[in-house]
Amino acid sequence: MKIKKGDLVQVITGKDKGKQGKVIVAYPREDRVLVEGVNRVKKHTKAGQTARGSKTGGIVTTEAPIHVSNVALVVEQDGKKVTTRVGYRFDDEGNKIRVAKRTGEDI
Description:
- There is one protein chain.
- By secondary structure, the protein is mainly beta.
- Helices cover about 0% and strands about 55% of the residues.
- It has strands spanning about 10, 20-25, 30-35, 40-50, 55-65, 65, 70-75, 80-85, 85-90, 95-100.
- The strands form 3 sheets. The protein has a 6-stranded antiparallel sheet with strand order 6-3-2-1-7-8, with no helix packed on it.
- The chain starts with 7 loop residues before the first strand and ends in a 7-residue tail after the last strand.
- It comes from Streptomyces calidiresistens.
- Belongs to the universal ribosomal protein uL24 family.
- GO terms for molecular function: rRNA binding; structural constituent of ribosome.
């Protein structure tokens, strides 16, 4: 998967199209990523009590995973943030390095 944890991405399709956020978690087996502030859903959690006696539960808003094909990596070019695809190259020592296709710079 070409999108990693910590990358800045932009949603390119769906209800949150155009929103940008940081990848919180990547799920490579499911081809999904969890993006900060994107695909927010409401979860109903069971009411309970903590050890101190305060109430917990109710309706909680949280992010849900989004498919990796619906996001594009964002890089900076001449002070502007642009979306790009990701490619790879190998350095002299044989290490694999991610490269922004649009700008040609290492990520």
